[in-house]
Specification:
This protein is α/β, with parallel strands linked by helices. The protein has 6 helices and 13 strands.
Length: about 260
């Protein structure tokens, strides 16, 4: 009996002395900036951030938030497994050193998540577009449309059926990275109102107009979804599962800092 007690006491002491496992951390970045002050800023940013922080608390990771480009330095980015560009737009960075820090983070295995208007960020930097998967070109007026689910196994889409009926700004892209895997695509069997799909500049991947995708390269993962224009969408359980699945997929394989 004494041996068992001592063994149990030793095991308890060992467990107590173990350091707590640090939670995975993501940086949620929301900068919207143009030098002339005329860039569009979404009113959904606060709701988007709130949703991500709630999902983080419920799912065992941490989410810090910033709109300050000064966070892009090697030392500041070191604790994070992924960057979440949440409805950012236009100039994400203020200096070339900040762009270099972003590039080093990605090349070091850091993950990337883009939400809605993030494809409007860094429109003149091909590297950023390659990492994210594409650049925003145009969108149809907000309306109901049908989404085809092309991958029902990915964590961002596993909760969906074969189609998803949704109302949003239907985004179209250029400079699409040909290596992205399209998860959601526009169902073109019903034409959009007040928007022509015949425009030759609208980018496609394997004949599909992509709406959400993922990408794996150089030991890191990227996920992007074009959905999420309205404030109330970030309280919608279907969209939240979509976002959460993408974030968790990205951080699951990202290298430890």
């Amino acid at each position: 009996m004494q041996i068992r007690l001592r063994t149990a006491s030793f095991a308890l002491l060992f467990l107590v002395s173990l350091p707590a496992m640090a939670a995975d951390k993501v940086l949620v970045y929301t900068r919207n900036f143009t030098k002339d002050g005329k860039g569009f800023v979404h009113d959904n940013i606060a709701a988007c951030v709130k949703s991500i922080k709630e999902m983080a608390a419920e799912n065992g990771f941490e989410a810090d938030v910033s709109e300050d480009p000064a966070v892009f330095s090697a030392a500041t980015l070191k604790p994070y497994k992924a960057l979440v560009f949440a409805n950012s737009n236009n100039e994400a960075f203020a200096t070339e050193d900040q762009r270099a820090a972003f590039k080093a983070f990605i090349h070091g295995g850091g993950g990337f998540v883009g939400i809605h208007s993030s494809t409007g960020s860094e429109r003149d930097w091909p590297f950023f577009q390659q990492v994210q998967g594409g650049k925003f070109l145009a969108h149809a007026p907000l309306q109901k449309f049908t989404i085809k689910v092309l991958d029902s196994a990915h964590p961002a889409t596993a909760h969906l059926g074969k189609t998803w009926h949704w109302a949003d700004e239907c985004y179209f892209f250029t400079n699409l990275n040909p290596d992205i895997k399209v998860l959601l695509a526009l169902d073109t069997s019903m034409p959009l109102e007040k928007f022509s799909l015949e425009q030759p500049t609208l980018g496609k991947i394997k004949g599909e107009f992509p709406l959400a995708w993922c990408h794996e390269a150089d030991g890191r993962r990227s996920f992007y979804t074009s959905l999420g224009h309205k404030i109330e969408y970030y309280s919608d359980p279907t969209l939240r599962k979509h976002l959460l699945g993408g974030i968790l997929w990205v951080i699951a394989a990202t290298k430890q800092p």
